[in-house]
Amino acid sequence: MRKVKWGVLGVAKIAVEKVIPAMQRGEVSEIAAIASRDPAKARDAAETLAIARAYGSYEELLADSEIEAVYNPLPNEMHVPWTIKALEAGKHVLCEKPIALDANEARQLIAARDKAGKLVGEAFMVRFHPQWRRARELVALGVIGAPSAIQTFFSYRLLDPANVRNRPPGGGGLYDIGCYAILTARHIFGAEPVRVAATLDRDPNFRTDRLVSAILEFPGGRHLTFSAATQLSPHQRVTIVGEAGRIEVEIPFNAPPDRPTKILIDTGEDLFGGGARVEEFPVCDQYTLQGDAFSRAVTGKSPLEFPLEDAVLNMRVIDALFRSAERGSWESP
User: Fold this and answer.
1) Whole-angstrom Cα distance, residue 158 to residue 259?
2) What would the DSSP string read from start to end of 305-328?
3) Is-contact 172 298, C-beta < 8 A?
4) 3 burial via Cβ count (<10 Å: 0-12, 13-18, 19+)
5) How many CB atoms lie within 10 A of CB 73?
6) CATH number for the domain running over 4-125+288-302
7) What's the CATH superfamily of 130-283+316-327?
8) pLDDT by residue (tens digit) across 104-162?
9) Could you tell me if 68 and 4 are in contact, meaning their C-beta atoms sit under 8 angstroms apart?
10) What is the pTM of this model?
11) What does the alpha-carbon distance between residue 130 and residue 49 come to, in Å, rounded to a whole number?
12) Pick from 200, 219, 187, 218: which is nearest to 314 by CA?
């Protein structure tokens, strides 16, 4: 089976520690080149990860005629300009989330994609994990009745001022992890929020949001409530509640690639778990699944399941949450 040849822009931690090793285990993905603006870093990463070619600039990688697809894990403010450059070089692009800093910026990618005739996807790996596929299937089957409320919490503790997540303009909790809460609620409800309200607290030195809490109202009176924090004890959990039960995703976002994962389905028979059962999923790596799904789309073996238009819709919600926090009002995406 032919493998798609990938190039990676930069030596970001997520790329070298998670995404590249996972994609190297894929059935139809081959990491053929990596680039950094520091040639030594590119060479070190290539040697460590057994990548054939290392480039001392992003431009050199984009000029490599063998590279078919590019993975873009650069800082958030560099997502759109370098994705456009990659498209102009004739490459398909899988870009890390959030794909842009606002919806208008994301819309630029649609025009660039259409002009280039290439694929662009936003790298939300959770959509490919079987635990989320199953949660959505159970909701669609009516196992918990009509779902009306989703509660999400996602936090980590990061105090390094040099870390890109703590630097404007692209840092902060809403961009980095709040986006997951929005995406998964849209995925489960199968709808777009009609209005949102948010409050956030900014670190006085970093000037990025370190705690954001929000409520999103979906059609039919359904709600997502979530908190995302970058300076609290690490924790994550998603609970989907319907009129006849609930689904709890134990490790919803950083699902481990080396052990089984599980979701809890509870009928609500009592408060002690009398109506609860667990579904367990075999060991898998959501980054491997994501990479191979995009590679299959590149080769035409399957359609791109989540097109760029979906990324714009997610960014519209993020924009509205920032406006709400600033104005102290409900906002419509």
Assistant:
1) 25
2) SS-HHHHHHHHHHHHHHHHHHHHT
3) no
4) middle
5) 22
6) 3.40.50.720
7) Dihydrodipicolinate Reductase; domain 2 (3.30.360.10)
8) 999 999 999 999 999 999 999 999 999 999 999 999 999 999 999 999 999 999 999 99
9) yes
10) 0.96
11) 27
12) 187
pLDDT digits (tens, 9 = 90+) for 292-303: 999 999 999 999
77 three-state secondary structure: helix
Query: Token pair of 320, please?
Result: 């509205």
Question: How much is the pLDDT for 1?
Answer: 75
Q: Can you give the residue ranges of every domain in the chain?
A: 4-125+288-302, 130-283+316-327
- Contacts of residue 287, defined as CB under 8 A and 6 or more positions apart, other chains included, come to 18, 19, 22, 23, 125, 257
Mean pLDDT along residues 6-10 = 98
| Whole-number Å distance between alpha carbons of 159 and 233 | 12
DSSP notation for 115-149 = HHT--EEEE-GGGGSHHHHHHHHHHHTTTTSSEEE
Element (H, E) at 96: strand 92-96
Helix, coil or strand: residue 253 = coil
Query: Which pair of structure tokens corresponds to residue 98?
Result: 């959030």
